[in-house]
Write a structure and sequence with these properties.
The protein has about 375 residues and is of the alpha/beta class. It has two domains: about 260 residues, Carbamate kinase (3-Layer(aba) Sandwich), CATH 3.40.1160; about 90 residues, Roll (Archaeosine Trna-guanine Transglycosylase, Chain: A, domain 4). The protein has 15 helices and 13 strands. An eight-stranded mixed sheet has the order 3-4-2-1-5-7-8-6, sandwiched between helices. α3 packs across α5. The longest helix has 24 residues. The two termini are about 25 Å apart. It binds adenosine-5'-diphosphate (ADP) and the ligand N[C@@H](CCC(=O)OP(=O)(O)O)C(=O)O. Adenosine-5'-diphosphate binds next to α2 and α10. The site of adenosine-5'-diphosphate has 24 residues, from α2 and α10. Catalyzes the transfer of a phosphate group to glutamate to form L-glutamate 5-phosphate. Keywords: Amino-acid biosynthesis, ATP-binding, Cytoplasm, Kinase, Nucleotide-binding, Proline biosynthesis, Transferase.
């Protein structure tokens, strides 16, 4: 089963959690990195390209600041990341050069992927690095980001990078051997779930926060990352990073960790970007009839089906589309601003020009820019 899903994999994203990369005293663990380099070199010999998304900058920078616990303030965290990031890259360089692998540091902010031109630019840089046989090592640019610009956690970043580089598999290496029915740190009866075909509310409830002082999002953000790549038609595996050979065994189709099967109806890259990378600037509530034609027949959203607009946004913004009960069922890019939509909603498209004095087209959201969630 797993082997079948892995057959066409040629490019992978491997996300490394802070807990995997650092040892007890919070220094970078060189043994882990040299094992990782060995496993990635072998994959490369087998024709598989790797992009690494690595956490660990904050944890690696902590000792230099004399911090024994998680930094308390944002400037402290950013200072720790600034010190730690260069240590991290030095450690990667040392370990990877032993295997004749060259690494490249790539630091991203959310804006780099939200802006379509910057997204494309980041993509060509990464493609070029890979074409040269270099292993990109990506992290969030912690030193400069403020809340509005944050990916928040590297699980999310790794899912967006999987879309960016069109990898066929995301592997999340963490400090636990997979997704359990509950957090095994607090529930001794928890058992591992080997295969997930769809993310249910029950699974989301089971996935809790981080159990360590270095991890960020726990299993909850890993599940959210898996959900994102599944919608892109890509598989994900969450497995133990510290156990030697796990990556190799996972790539060979052995039953390690938890595997997430790709969704059968997947989104193309642009629609995935609309659904998961852009931040909604407001919402549009539609009536039952509009919900039906959008959800069932994949049609465009016309002004006549819109009941209410929430938030202020411009033409070209990403918005949530809500059903009459307020539940979000789609996201899309609008062709009219919130103020224009307030004036044309509940009207026929043929009346747009008369009401506004101009028209861009019949649709408020064209079906090519609309994603069902
Ligand atoms: N259902 C669950 N199954 C497995 N681990 C869970 C679950 N719920 C919460 N966790 C916690 O998630 C942690 C892994 O996330 P995190 O600490 O953020 O690691 P990383 O630094 O690799 O991102 C585990 O050590 C565990 O304590
Ligand atoms: N960018 C941060 C990591 C943030 C993060 O998500 O950490 P983790 O949960 O360990 O993957 C750092 O390098 O310390």
């Amino acid at each position: 089963m797993r082997k079948g899903l892995l057959k066409k994999v040629r490019r992978i994203v491997v996300k490394i959690g802070s807990g995997v990369l650092t040892s007890e005293d919070n220094g970078i663990d060189p043994l882990f990195l040299s094992r990782l380099a060995g496993e990635l070199a072998q994959l490369r010999a087998d024709g598989i390209e790797t992009v690494v998304v690595s956490s660990g900058a904050v944890a690696a920078g902590r000792p230099a600041l004399g911090l024994t616990d998680r930094p308390k303030t944002l400037p402290q965290k950013q200072a720790a990341a600034a010190v730690g990031q260069s240590r991290l890259m030095r450690a990667y360089e040392e370990a990877f050069s032993q295997q004749d692998l060259t690494v490249a540091q790539v630091l991203l902010t959310r804006d780099d992927l939200v802006n379509r031109r910057r997204f494309q630019n980041a993509r060509s840089t990464l493609d070029t690095l890979l074409a040269y046989g270099i292993v990109p090592v990506i992290n969030e640019n912690d030193t400069v980001v403020v809340d509005e610009l944050k990916f928040g956690d590297n699980d999310n970043l790794s899912a967006l990078v999987t879309n960016l580089v069109e990898a066929q598999l995301l592997i999340i290496l963490t400090d636990i051997d997979g997704l359990y029915t509950a957090d095994p740190r607090t529930d001794a009866t928890a058992t591992i779930i080997p295969m997930v075909r769809g993310i249910t509310k029950d699974l989301e409830r089971a996935a809790g926060g981080s159990g360590t002082s270095v991890g960020t999002g726990g299993m909850a953000t890993k599940l959210a990352a898996a959900k994102k790549v599944m919608r892109y038609g890509v598989a994900a595996i969450i497995c133990a990073g510290k156990t030697p050979g796990t990556l190799t065994r996972a790539m060979a189709g052995e039953e390690v960790g938890t595997m997430f099967a790709p969704a059968e109806r997947s989104l193309n890259r642009r629609k995935h970007w609309i659904a998961f990378t852009l931040r909604p600037a407001g919402s549009i509530r539609v009536d039952a009839g509009a919900r039906e034609v959008l959800a069932r027949h994949g049609r465009s959203l016309l002004p006549s089906g819109i009941e209410k607009v929430e938030g202020r946004f411009e033409r070209g913004a990403c918005v949530r589309v809500l059903a009459p009960d307020g539940a979000e069922f789609a996201r899309g890019i609008v062709d009219y601003s919130s103020q224009e939509i307030e004036r044309i909603c509940r009207h026929k498209s043929s009346e747009i020009e008369e009401i506004l004095g101009f028209r861009y087209g019949d649709d408020v959201i064209h079906r090519d820019n609309l994603v069902l969630l």
